Known about the structure:
By secondary structure, the chain is an all-alpha fold. The protein has helices at residues 8-29, 34-60, 67-74, 77-90, 99-121, 125-138, 147-187, 195-209, 211-228, 239-259, 262-272. It is 78% helix and 0% strand.
Amino acid sequence: MAQPTNQPQFYWWIGHVAVLFFGTLYYVKRPFGWREANWYYTKAYMGALMSYTIVIYKTYGPPQLNLAFVHRLIVDENVEYLLLAFFWLVMRPMVVTLLPFVVFSLFHVITYARSTLIPTLVPGVTAEIQRARQAERSGGAAGRLSLAARVSKLMGDWSSTYNAPALREVGVWEVAVVGTWVVLGAVTFQTPLLAPPFYFQFLRMRYALSASTRAAFLRVRGFLDATLTPPSASANVPGVVTDTYIRVRDFLVNIGDAITGPEQQQQQRQQRQ
């Protein structure tokens, strides 16, 4: 087996370790002072740039000066997140933006450690886990696993259980929390006016290319519909709030319909029913 340090994916993993490590420290330090915490914020985004650059270069190779190459980059989610990470890095730090990257990196760190690092350090661990699972399926005694096998199995089971739910919640966070923060920040002059159009262009691309992002928009719409529109809305909600929300919602729905194709629109209507 090739040494991990000889492979680009190892340095991709190091970038995600940096995001996870410095991102966690940022959220720990942030309540006690933003100046010191911002150093960790910057280092976390530098780790994200490192990871996404490596995976993009590994996928596409050196840049090519043709439209087909540019189109392939545009529709790649790694490119989208690379540009977003760079944008957040050069903008004034916003506490809500880093969390999705930390969650992504958590699962990347676990997956690579389980699938590559542990088997490299303990070569028999994969076969040991497979034998234990075969014994469990056949009803026999699995035997006691080694420490490395127990750690690897725990990481795999945890990731399998929480990966999909975590990514669903991250999608809602990107749509509802970061989107709202960016708009309110621009309105109150706390964030640059460039931030809302840039971030909504990112969401537009994600909406067009990602089913999970479209599902996140549906979840946010379902919550707001139940909260702000009859018959489920509270009688204390002012009519002007309901009317404004409906106009904004319908405007965004029309934009979404213009982005997606007929099949995707039909699927979303079925999900709303």
